[in-house]
């Protein structure tokens, strides 16, 4: 009885707090990121670029940065979602975008590092905020030529680091045939460049038919097409988010015209937990293994093949197979000792990692103290000057 009550309480508590979910939206300026964010949330979360006055100073507009917005949403069953959206204004605007790529990947890795560090602490911080990004919505402009160089460069770097969801924006500007052609060309390029996007994993043996059917259907839609709008119109007494044209009006939620509703449902309802699980169990686990083994690239064989495989079936949890290393070819003889040695090495690496972070922290503290000292000096000087003035 008691356990039932506490379970119910726990459930209520998580419901009250809401499910935390973090999305990043990457795409070139004007690709429709802001409009998509507003459409997804059903409210104006970010200002669309058409309403932002052009900066007179070119360099200001071109500065690439990440911007986080937090929105509280509630789904139709009253479940609260605490959504963090990281927008990437200025992405791809400069001639050399290599630093843009690093800013994005550094951010993603930093969130993993924070969790890694928290996991290794003896005493956990009860207020720790897990800010790992659960999916990157990557906006591709339909050009009739597949991916652009900047897309390939960015997506290659994101591969294996985060769930990538490729999207074609402004589907209303394309005919049905053009959309089909663009989808085909983009898909070919994604394959050609070895870009691993989120491939709605399922396991024919363990998953039910519904999951298998849904996920194979979702696979067939990649890259998703979307139409966004920043405006809501009243149509026959109903408020509808849509776009007005000289020839008429379209509802962005129209299934016939784009995959927007499907994408919104999978992100916020049906696949929210799957995306979070995949981030934690597969992507973060891969990052963790690489980080703790030093330089990366020294992944054990059984993991390397797993991560390099085509994203076709649900990869097993790395943690679920504690004996996997026993089967590893490099550990054929003295397996037990070899495992002990592995554990010892892993502990050493973890220690080195923590030391590195501690050193960083000390450095930051020193800098802070330095700033404070400077501030005090300035204050003292101002006081002195004020005193001299009043004595005059
Ligand atoms: N036709 C059409 N225009 C769109 C769509 N989404 C956004 N836009 C327009 O494209 C321009 C740039 O959109 P914005 O969301 O500000 O792009 P951002 O720079 O990527 O954030 C704006 O004028 C939007 O109104 C769409 O689905 N269809
Ligand atoms: Mg924008």
From TrEMBL:
<comment type="similarity">
    <text>Belongs to the TRAFAC class TrmE-Era-EngA-EngB-Septin-like GTPase superfamily. Septin GTPase family.</text>
</comment>
<feature type="domain" description="Septin-type G">
    <location>
        <begin position="17"/>
        <end position="294"/>
    </location>
</feature>
<dbReference type="InterPro" id="IPR027417">
    <property type="entry name" value="P-loop_NTPase"/>
</dbReference>
<dbReference type="GO" id="GO:0005525">
    <property type="term" value="F:GTP binding"/>
</dbReference>
<dbReference type="GO" id="GO:0005935">
    <property type="term" value="C:cellular bud neck"/>
</dbReference>
<keyword id="KW-0175">Coiled coil</keyword>
<dbReference type="Pfam" id="PF00735">
    <property type="entry name" value="Septin"/>
</dbReference>
<feature type="coiled-coil region">
    <location>
        <begin position="336"/>
        <end position="388"/>
    </location>
</feature>
<dbReference type="InterPro" id="IPR030379">
    <property type="entry name" value="G_SEPTIN_dom"/>
</dbReference>
<dbReference type="InterPro" id="IPR016491">
    <property type="entry name" value="Septin"/>
</dbReference>
<keyword id="KW-0547">Nucleotide-binding</keyword>
<dbReference type="GO" id="GO:0031105">
    <property type="term" value="C:septin complex"/>
</dbReference>
<protein>
    <submittedName>
        <fullName>Septin</fullName>
    </submittedName>
</protein>
<keyword id="KW-0342">GTP-binding</keyword>
């Amino acid at each position: 009885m008691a356990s039932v009550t506490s379970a119910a309480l726990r459930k209520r508590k998580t419901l009250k707090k809401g499910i935390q979910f973090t999305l990043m939206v990457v795409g070139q300026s004007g690709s429709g990121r802001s409009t998509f964010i507003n459409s997804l949330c059903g409210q104006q979360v970010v200002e669309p670029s058409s309403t932002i006055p052009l900066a007179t100073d070119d360099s200001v507009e071109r500065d690439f940065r990440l911007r986080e917005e937090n929105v509280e949403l509630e789904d139709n069953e009253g479940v609260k979602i605490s959504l963090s959206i990281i927008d990437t204004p200025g992405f791809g605007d400069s001639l050399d975008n290599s630093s843009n790529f690093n800013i994005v990947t550094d951010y993603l890795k930093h969130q993993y590092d924070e969790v890694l560090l928290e996991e290794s602490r003896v005493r956990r911080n009860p207020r720790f905020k897990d800010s790992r990004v659960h999916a990157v919505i990557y906006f591709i402009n339909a050009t009739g030529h597949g991916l652009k160089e900047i897309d390939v460069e960015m997506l290659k770097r994101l591969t294996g680091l985060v769930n990538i969801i490729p999207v074609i924006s402004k589907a209303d500007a394309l005919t049905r045939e053009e959309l089909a052609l663009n989808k085909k060309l983009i898909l070919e390029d994604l394959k050609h460049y070895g870009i691993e996007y989120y491939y709605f994993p399922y396991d024919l043996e363990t998953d039910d038919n519904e999951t298998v059917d849904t996920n194979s259907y979702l696979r067939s839609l990649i890259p998703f097409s979307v139409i966004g709008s920043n405006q809501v119109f009243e149509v026959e007494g109903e408020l509808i988010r849509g776009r007005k044209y000289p020839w008429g009006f379209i509802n962005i939620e129209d299934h016939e015209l784009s995959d927007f509703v499907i994408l919104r449902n999978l992100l916020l309802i049906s696949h929210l937990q799957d995306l979070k699980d995949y981030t934690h169990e597969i992507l973060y686990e891969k990052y963790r293994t690489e980080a703790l083994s030093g330089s990366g690239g020294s992944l054990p064989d059984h993991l390397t093949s797993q991560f390099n495989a085509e994203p076709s079936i649900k990869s097993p949890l790395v943690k679920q197979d504690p004996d996997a290393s026993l089967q590893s070819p490099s550990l054929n003889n003295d397996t037990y000792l070899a495992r002990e040695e592995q554990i010892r090495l892993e502990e050493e690496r973890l220690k080195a990692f923590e030391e590195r972070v501690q050193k960083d922290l000390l450095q930051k503290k020193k800098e802070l103290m330095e700033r404070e000292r400077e501030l005090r000096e300035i204050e003292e000087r101002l006081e002195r000057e004020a005193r001299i003035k009043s004595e005059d």
